[in-house]
Amino acid sequence: MNTLTFPLLRFLSDGCDHTCSDIGDSLGVPATRVSETLDELVSMGMKIDRETDDSCRLQTDIQWLDADEIAHHLGNKASAFQVEVVDHTASTNSDLMARAGQQGASGLVRVAELQTAGRGRRQRTWYSGIGDALTLSLLWVFGGDVAALSGLPLAVGVSLVRSLRALGVAEVSLKWPNDILLQQRKLGGVLIETTSRNAESVQVVIGIGLNLRLSRSVAQRIDQEAADLDTAGMRIGRNELFARLLVDLRAALEDYAREGFASFKDEWERMHAYQDKMVRLALADGTQTEGRVTGVDNDGALLLCVGARTHRFNSGELSLRPIQM
Ligand code: ATP
Fold first, then answer.
1. Which of 185, 230, 290, 308 is such that its CA lies 20 to 30 A from the CA of 56?
2. What is the Cα Rg of the chain in Å?
3. Is 250 among the catalytic positions?
4. Closest ligand 1 atom, CA of 128?
C-alpha cells in the first residue's frame, strides 16, 4: 500500500473506464505509478479490469465510510459519539488502547476502511479487504472493578445479534465467547481490551469486526468457514449499518453498566448456536475436553456438562468447536 492507494480507489469508484495517463494527470502522479498501484490493488484482491490499451475499471462498488452520513444515521444520538473515520490503520483497537488514559470519555469510536494488522484473541489475525467490512473500536468507561466485565464480550455479541436480526438477518447466532455466526459460519468477532484508569473505573476498548463481503483472497486466508452479510442478502448501506450497530451497542453498554451480564444471560443462551449441543474445547495446555453446553454462568463463563459433572470455563485460552453427531 502507498499514498496513492486510497486516492486512486476513490477516483475509480465512479465505476467508469479510465486510462492510467488520465488518472495520473488528475491525481498529479506519473502513469507508471498509477499502473504499479493498480497491480498492487489487484494483488490485494480488488476486482479491477485492466485492458491492453491501459484502461481500467473498478468492478467492485465501494460504499465509503463517511462521517457526515454516519452522523445523519445516528440522528439525535450523534452527540453521544465522537467518530473518527480513517482510510487505514494497523488496528483500531491498538489505536484506542494507545489513547485510553489520555481521553477518558465514553463514546470515542474509530473505524477504518482497512485494518492492516487486525487482531482477534491471542494475537490471532483478523482479515478484511478494503471497504468489505466494518472494523471498528469503541472506547467506553465503566465504573467499578474489571472483574465485573468478564461477561462484556458476550453482552456485545447479544447487541450485535439484536441489531442484525432487526435488520432482517434471521440466521445469525453466537458462539462462545466472542464470535458472531451466520448459518454456523463466522461472520464477525468481538475483541475487548481493558486498561484501568483508576481504582473506581475501567476503560474498555471494544473492537468489532464484521464481514460485509468476503473477497476470495480474504476468504482463502481464513482458516475456518466464514460468512458475510452481502451473501445473506443484506442490502443496508455501510454507514447506516455502522450507525445502527453503535446506537444499539450504546444501549446495551448502559444496561450492562446498570445490571451486569445477568440481564443478558438468558437471551445470550437463546442466541448460542451450541446451546445443549456437544462441543469440543481446546484448552490452554493443549489438551481437549468434550461435553454438552448447558449454558453460561452469571459472569459469562461457559458451563459444560462432562460426564455427570458441570464444569465452568473462562474465556481466556479456549476455542470451542462443535462435534458433528
Ligand atoms: P475461534 O474462532 O477459533 O473460536 P476465537 O474466537 O478466539 O477463536 P478470534 O481470535 O476472535 O477467534 O479471531 C481470529 C480468528 O478468526 C482467526 O484465527 C481466523 O480463524 C478467524 N478470522 C479471521 N478473519 C476473519 C474474518 N474476516 N471472518 C471470519 N473469521 C475470521
1. 230
2. 21
3. no
4. 27
86 lines ligand 1 (CB under 6 A): no
Tell me if 228 CB under 6 Å of ligand 1.
no
Pick the residue whose CA is nearest to atom 4 on ligand 1. 319
- The residue with cell 460485509 is 212
pLDDT digits (tens, 9 = 90+) for 43-67: 888 999 988 778 899 999 999 999 9
Q: With a 6 A CB cut-off, is 135 part of the ligand 1 pocket?
A: no
Nearest of 128, 181, 138, 126 to residue 157 by alpha carbon:
181
CB 211 less than 6 A from any atom of ligand 1 = yes
Q: Which residues have CB under 8 Å from 112's CB, separation 6+?
A: 85, 86, 87, 88, 89, 92, 135, 136
Ligand 1 centroid to Cα of residue 126, in Å, is 6
- The response to whether residue 178 sits with its C-beta less than 6 Å from ligand 1 reads yes
What is the chain's mean pLDDT, rounded?
Answer: 93
Q: How many CA atoms lie within 13 A of 100 on its CB side?
A: 27
| pTM of the predicted model over 0.85 | yes
Amino acid at the residue 202:
V
State residue 28's pLDDT score: 97
Domains of the chain (ranges, CATH numbers): 5-58 (1.10.10.10), 67-270 (3.30.930.10), 274-322 (2.30.30.100)
* 99 flagged as catalytic: no
Give the number of the atom of ligand 1 that is nearest the alpha carbon of residue 179. Answer: 6
Residue 121 annotated as catalytic: yes
- Strands of the sheet containing 278-282, edge to edge, are 309-313, 302-306, 288-296, 278-282, 319-322
> Which cell numbers in the block locate residue 68?
457526515
Give first-to-last CA distance, the chain, whole Å: 46
**In one letter, which amino acid is 133?**
A
As given in the structure block, the three cell numbers for residue 272 are 448460542
**Nearest CA among 160, 169, 185, 170 for reference residue 230:** 169
